[in-house]
Amino acid sequence: MSGWDEGGVYYSDQAHSWHDGNRPGDPDSTASNHTIQQKFKEFIRNFSKNGLFPYRQNLLDNPKFLLVRLEDLDEFAPELSPKLESSPSDFLPLFESAAAQVLGSLKTKVTGDNGELEDQVAGDVQILLTSEKDPVSMRSLGAQNISKLVKIAGITIAASRTKAKATYVTLVCKNCKKGKEIPCRPGLGGAVVPRSCDHIPQTGEEPCPIDPWIVVPDKSKYVDQQTLKLQENPEDVPTGELPRNLLLSVDRHLVQTVVPGSRLTVTGIFSIFQASNSGSNKGAVAVRQPYIRVVGIEDTNEAKSGGPSAFTPEEIEEFKKFAAEPDAYKNICSKIAPSIFGHDDVKKAVACLLFGGSRKNLPDGVKLRGDINVLLLGDPSTAKSQFLKFVEKTAPIAVYTSGKGSSAAGLTASVIRDTSTREFYLEGGAMVLADGGVVCIDEFDKMRPEDRVAIHEAMEQQTISIAKAGITTVLNSRASVLAAANPPSGRYDDLKTAQDNIDLQTTILSRFDLIFIVKDIRMYSQDKIIASHVIKVHASAGATTSENRVSKEENWLKRYLHYCRTECHPRLSESAATLLQNNYVKIRQDMRQQANETGEAAAIPITVRQLEAIVRLSEALAKMKLSHIATEEHVQEAVRLFTVSTMDAARSGIHQQISLTPEMANEIKQAETQIKRRIGIGNHISERRLIDDLSRMGMNESIVRRALVIMHQRDEVEYKRERRVICRKA
């Protein structure tokens, strides 16, 4: 896409092509254009809806631009709408001049030079078009669409600086000093400069040479113009292919209305322009680059995102009927990853994540997130990645990424320098592209710590702040995070403490609402059922009838999800709030008591964030049943889910089985002494190396680990990144 953001006045020797063989000066063409303009004026003046005249009123309220629905135009004048769609570049200027004339006649008259009352001279009015039609795929646009009105959807990945684009260029002949004003084609089109001056020389006067014109920039007329890059929505990209992007040109009032990372639905004229002579296109005179000249932008916000937002009355009736059933919650959970056996609580948590809580905006401007983050931590082969893949397919907007292949810039946003202009621009990463949806991060533990830190802000504040290469901005990333990770040793080891098994920093753990320890338990009866289930899944995989039914069910769940997220924003009832408050205080008390008994802090902190997590879970459970109030029943289920996930994870590990005996206490004291001798104050050493060194001296590994935990409690040693131990005091 070299040269996509270049400024300057465009020139071209290409002549205008005129439709229907009519030249602009032809009387037939002028007459028909006048008739069409009159019809446009009638439409703006006389179109009424429910006894109101919306366009007339909108024009008075905002004289700069007018937003027109193509359906209204089709209803008022059925012959105009097809013309506007098939050749918009011819009819949009007529529409705009009609709007300007109507605006002039609607305003109060002013006294002219000769003392008579005259209409005010109105400025330019920009016509913006919108329609209810579904957007077409970016890949389906071809030569047959050139110069026609198209509607596409996507994500803006880059926005250029605002430039001044000439609408009329003033030329002066360098020989006879005669002036001439010529129009510029809109969009990325240039001005057609005549080769010769039309001045007729007098006798004895030197004739004007070929190409005598000089551009006078000061006397030319300009409008603001900006170029954007629109990329396909991630869910529309075919498997294994790279997302395509398309150049957009916006002008006048649409300039600077879009930031990178926004999801847009764009109505525009599919046009072509001559790219700058880059290496690949040199000499290819007939080859033109496509772009879209935008004539209407709709911001696809979170509520509208993912598929058509219009629900039929039958669908709404069906959704309400389903939500009213007593076992609606159970039915939804049975639709979550039906090919995975067991893991009922994980399925319930994934259902809560898909529905999400309610986002809240406080009076002082603080925003509280409504998205639920879930971490699945445990043994290999426990269907963690399958859950992530299911969510990627089911969520209206989802981005799947793997920890090892993701960098901080790839997850948040990167600053890229354009090859032709040497200018910096922003490209949004996975967290920005998934705004309003879900980010699935597999192999979360394999990420580099500095990359993991980059998503801290996105997980709690739901924004991404960028201050790079002179670009300082804040991007939205209102997305849920579903992450899967393995313990450091690959499998979950019951002989290690919770801290060793969950080798993630407290800062990131507190941002997860639910943390599930998924273990591969060896039990004869359970193994037999799982084996039978897996074989059944493989045996019935080829049946086409069931496949159609499954895709239909998935589609239904997607639509129901979309409807619940759009229509329902629950709040806690008074009694539920009291119950939740008491539960939270009790959980904190239990954790404090456990810390006092074992002499070690919980691996997973229980903070106010966890209280907010239970609130969000309660709201999500209420949302599943289309209830606008989260009751005590919802709070109890949310607390139960929180207890079987995060609380169990916090309590897991070796300290459940072992109580300190006097001999063990003595051994721990000896281990502490050796640790202090081994590490000098202020020095640091890898935990693994320290344990290996003391094991060679004949000490038990679990005793050394316990001694380290107790010293960490007393603040005698501290852990840095990658589990490095630093001795703080002797």
UniProtKB/TrEMBL annotation:
It comes from Stylosanthes scabra. It is an enzyme of class 3 (hydrolase). SUPFAM superfamilies: Nucleic acid-binding proteins, P-loop containing nucleoside triphosphate hydrolases. It is found in: Nucleus. The lineage of its organism: Eukaryota, Viridiplantae, Streptophyta, Embryophyta, Tracheophyta. The keyword Iron does not apply. This is DNA replication licensing factor MCM5. Keywords: ATP-binding, Cell cycle, DNA replication, DNA-binding, Helicase, Hydrolase, Nucleotide-binding, Nucleus. It holds the Pfam family MCM5_C. Its EC number is 3.6.4.12. Acts as component of the MCM2-7 complex (MCM complex) which is the replicative helicase essential for 'once per cell cycle' DNA replication initiation and elongation in eukaryotic cells. The active ATPase sites in the MCM2-7 ring are formed through the interaction surfaces of two neighboring subunits such that a critical structure of a conserved arginine finger motif is provided in trans relative to the ATP-binding site of the Walker A box of the adjacent subunit. The six ATPase active sites, however, are likely to contribute differentially to the complex helicase activity. Residues 328-534 form the MCM C-terminal AAA(+) ATPase domain. GO terms for molecular function: DNA helicase activity; hydrolase activity. PANTHER family: DNA REPLICATION LICENSING FACTOR MCM FAMILY MEMBER, DNA REPLICATION LICENSING FACTOR MCM5.
